[in-house]
Amino acid sequence: MTPASGCRRVNVEPNGPVLVEGPVEIVRDDGTIARSNRFMVAVCTCRRSRSYPWCDTSHRARVKTSDTDNAQNREARSTAAPDDTHDRNLP
């Protein structure tokens, strides 16, 4: 389905940005204008974006899964003091 002549198409993404067919101009709170000539722009709705009003995917959950992090976690567990409560002979 195509938009009516002269209309802009806007797609609202659940838990994400608003996608607007460009080019667009956005008037910010302070009255300045942000412009984009791209054919499609993602407008931030969470206000976490470092490039606000444009979305930079800051709304996504971040999970550390690098090999360095995993190796550091394994090393920390191996050097931790053992829990000897299971090895004690209790009276």
Spell out the blueprint of helices and strands.
Layout: E1 10-12, E2 18-21, E3 24-27, E4 33-36, E5 40-43, H1 67-79
Antiparallel strand pairs: 1-2, 2-5, 3-4
The total domain count is 1
Q: Overall mean pLDDT score?
A: 76
State the low-pLDDT regions, or none.
81-91
Task: Determine the N-to-C terminus distance.
Answer: 79 Å
Biggest sheet character: 3 strands, antiparallel
- The strand line-up of the biggest sheet is 1-2-5
Number of helices: 1
Number of strands: 5
Helix content: 10-25%
Topology as H/E string?
EEEEEH
Question: TL;DR?
Answer:
The chain is an alpha+beta fold. The protein has one helix spanning 67-79; strands spanning 10-12, 18-21, 24-27, 33-36, 40-43. It has one domain (10-77).
Detailed description of the structure:
The protein has one domain (10-77). A hairpin with a 5-residue loop joins β1 and β2. The N and C termini lie far apart (79 Å). Helix content is 14%, strand content 21%. It has one helix at 67-79; strands at 10-12, 18-21, 24-27, 33-36, 40-43. It is built from 1 helix and 5 strands. The model is unreliable at 81-91 (pLDDT under 50). It is elongated. With 91 residues, the chain is of the alpha+beta class. Strands 1-2-5 form a 3-stranded antiparallel β-sheet, with no helix packed on it. Strands 3-4 form a two-stranded antiparallel ribbon.
